[in-house]
Amino acid sequence: MFKYLYTFILFFLITNSFASNKENIANNLKNTKNINFKFEQNINHKIEKGKCTVQYPKKIFCKYESSNNKILVSNGKSLVIKTSVSYYRYPLKRTPLDLILDKNFLINRIQSLEEKIIDESYINYTIVENDNEINIFFDNKTFNLIGWQTKDIYQNLNITFLSSIRKNEEINVDIFKLPTQN
User: In the chain, which end has fewer C-beta atoms inside a 10 angstrom radius, N or C?
Assistant: First the structure.
């Protein structure tokens, strides 16, 4: 009797754990209003580091550790990349961040995608949308977003890793105001 009960429970736990990754990720995203994190970004083998704050939907502020005072800001409609010597402004819809920063889009798309488990540590989904291919990664234990791989508007490979993730902290929403051009 115990052998059958043990087998049933083991089978249930195994099948439930595989079936629930998408549900766990969706619930985690639904319960996340904002995230703060450190990042390491590799664009064509040039590595940059910094800190970001994301407020859903579609707002981001990143301050890079570089000496040129680089920041990246989205107010949900436009994306600005500003350094001490340059200023670029793009419609957010023309960038992969438009999709990455939209948690409802991620939740809906993930439900229909095939997941890949990488090294038993990461859950990966590949999203193809509007000529963008985005590989998005979640932690297999916390179900937090931990990175993405895209091509930027110049077709450069962009790999971003997130660490020191903190969720639902008090943030100053003024950081999402677009900076003015020098």
Answer: N
